[in-house]
Amino acid sequence: MNRKRLDIGVPLVFAVAIVLTSLFGAEGTTVGMVALVGAIAIGFYFAALRKNIEP
After folding, report:
1. What is the model's pLDDT at position 36?
2. Which residue spans traverse the membrane (predicted)?
3. What's the pLDDT tens digit per position in 4-32?
4. ∠48-21-2 over CA atoms, to 5°?
5. Per-residue DSSP letters for 1-55?
6. How many Å apart are CA 34 and CA 14, to the nearest integer?
7. Angle CA(10)–CA(8)–CA(3) in degrees, nearest 5?
8. Residues 6+ apart with CB under 8 A from 55
């Protein structure tokens, strides 16, 4: 996978996870935890992992 696809795919997977947990009637704390873990994962991707992927 190249960087362009991951730059689109990583946030898209995060958005889909938020929508799915909301649609399936999850409690507010569950959606909050998914948001927190997803935000940390996106931050980690853009801060550390993205540098090692060829453009």
Report:
1. 93
2. 7-25, 31-49
3. 888 889 899 999 998 998 888 778 888 88
4. 30
5. --HHHHHHHHHHHHHHHHHHHHHTT--HHHHHHHHHHHHHHHHHHHHTGGGGS--
6. 8
7. 90
8. 2, 3, 4
Joined together, the tokens standing for residue 26 give: 């999850």
Residues in the chain: 55
Q: Which residue has the tokens 């795919």?
A: 9
Cα-Cα end-to-end distance for the chain = 10
Cβ within 8 Å of residue 18, ≥6 positions away: 31, 34, 35, 38
Q: What is the pTM of this model?
A: 0.76
